[in-house]
Amino acid sequence: MLGTDYEQRKKADTGLRYHTLSVIEQEIVMTEIEEKDNDARIQLAHEIKVNMPKLSDGERAAAVAIFEAGAKSMNLSFADYLQSTFPNGVFGNYNEAKEQAQKKGVEINGGVSISTNPFTENVNAVIYASENADFSTWCHELAHIWQSQLTGTLKDNAEKAFQVQNGNWQESIYTFADGHTDTSAEAFAYGFEDFLKHTAGEMATEDKKAIFEKFADYMAHTYNGINENIKINKEISDVYNAFVTLDDNMLAEAEKAVQIEKESTRTFDKKNTMLFEPNLGDNIDISDSILNGKPVKEILSDDFHYDGSNLKDFALQYLHNNPQGIAITKIGEVEISESGLQKSLSHTLYKNKLYSIPAIKDTLEHGTYLGVIKDLDGKRQNNYYFAAPIIIDGIKDVLFVRVKQIAGQEKAFYIHDVFTLDEIRTVAPYTGELNATQRSLRGATLAKSIIQDYEKNKIIQNNPLYIE
Q: Kind of pairing, strands 332-335 and 326-329?
């Protein structure tokens, strides 16, 4: 999985010649993939809570797990599937969808809009759910999306099982268990509900039966209860089963994401730097040493010979041609690698961020160590913050660096984020209401909060999540 993902990322990049991955760089890539998926699970758990408030925590976790099973069936990571299929967010405005449906004389409890991106040929979808939508609504709309993403032999088998004519699911007619007819597309979606209620548990291996029994129980408490919509035969079961091959830890990861999302919500109702353990040392006025201290590095932009090309491509090429090595810091040795910095450079990138690269090592070794924040998913993967004043073309700036611990390794670290005061100034401050990208307080939002708290000398030590 690691090799495949990394090779895809290399091919999708800019054609740079990457050197052979070291063991630590392989760990960095794996850590980034896992972190991306963890954040995506939390994001989805939050979106479901906001848009489908009737679901219990257990049902939310089941919804996230089923979503991941579908992603896996298409050989995509959780985060990649979420981004590629729902580029504008999972949920749309239900009231607008309801109004459009009523114009056609139809009442809906949920719905889905599906289109194909003409440039990427990806299926893009948006789910609409009323406040009363239940677990079956989620499964029903997800099944519609999966049906539109069928390919190859599985698609052929599905079209045969659901009596689809000429590949047109919307125009093909299917007879339901009670004798009424509807489109094959609706039969597929209602049939998936039936599969989870009655059949999935029977097909599951012994170690997965408890999971599917839980799903069946959630389905039994929905509006449609234990009613049978279509007759499930082996051909239909085989199609659905391809989408719900659960890894042993898939539900456990989903349950963890729901719990983290809940804890985060409680945290975000409190003060700025929740979870942050400051490193005060002997210098109480750390903000002064960061903002007004002696610069650790003076940089001239002319030394870069920037040619006006794509800034990210240029920065990655610069890193490749100018290895930054290893910094000796208060927390241990930190590798300043191409792989570690790539994620930060892929986000917000501006010229001062490029020009600050040669100052990273000096910031880590001679700047101020601010403190540590534990990873929200409970892994032994802390985040460490450093900052120092620098000078770029005669103008003073401040460089912030986040160092991340490689999961499960006590003394292995890499650079994860780099940002200057330009980014700190423009990011929205923490106000108690965070958007999805701010929710973990790991990036520029946290740095801004740290600086604000140091300046005000208001490090909060009485919150329940404060690290002893």
A: antiparallel
pTM of the model: 0.59
* Pairing mode of beta strands 332-335, 383-392: unpaired
* Consecutive 10-residue averages of pLDDT for the chain (468 residues): 34 38 58 77 88 93 94 91 88 88 83 82 90 92 95 94 95 94 95 90 80 88 73 92 82 88 49 42 52 84 86 83 86 77 63 86 87 62 83 88 71 72 60 43 57 45 29
Q: What does the longest C-alpha to C-alpha distance in the chain come to? A: 81
Spacing of C-alpha 15 from chain mean position: 26
> Which of 437, 408, 418 has the alpha carbon at shortest distance from 30?
408
CB-based contact 238:73 (threshold 8 Å): no
What is the pLDDT at residue 384? 83
Closest CA to 353 of 362, 344, 364, 340: 344
Say which residue the tokens 């597309």 belong to: 185
The pair phi, psi for residue 372, each rounded to 5°, is: -135, 150
Report in angstroms the alpha-carbon separations of 145 from 77, 96, 205, 235. 17, 20, 26, 20
Q: Amino acid identity of 441?
A: L
The identity of residue 75, as a single letter, is: N
pLDDT of 121? 78
3-state SS class at 343 = helix
pLDDT of residue 57: 94
Report the first-to-last Cα separation within the chain, whole angstroms: 37
β-pairing, 298-299 with 383-392?
parallel
Q: Read off the DSSP letter of residue 33.
A: H
> What residue type is 327 in one-letter code?
A
Which residue(s) pair with 279 in the sheet? none
Q: In this structure, what are the phi and psi dihedrals at residue 419, rounded to the nearest 5 degrees? A: -155, 150
- pLDDT score at 466: 26
Q: Which residues, listed in sequence order, are joined to residue 395 by a DSSP beta bridge?
A: 392
Sign, CA dihedral 87-90-95-99, equals positive
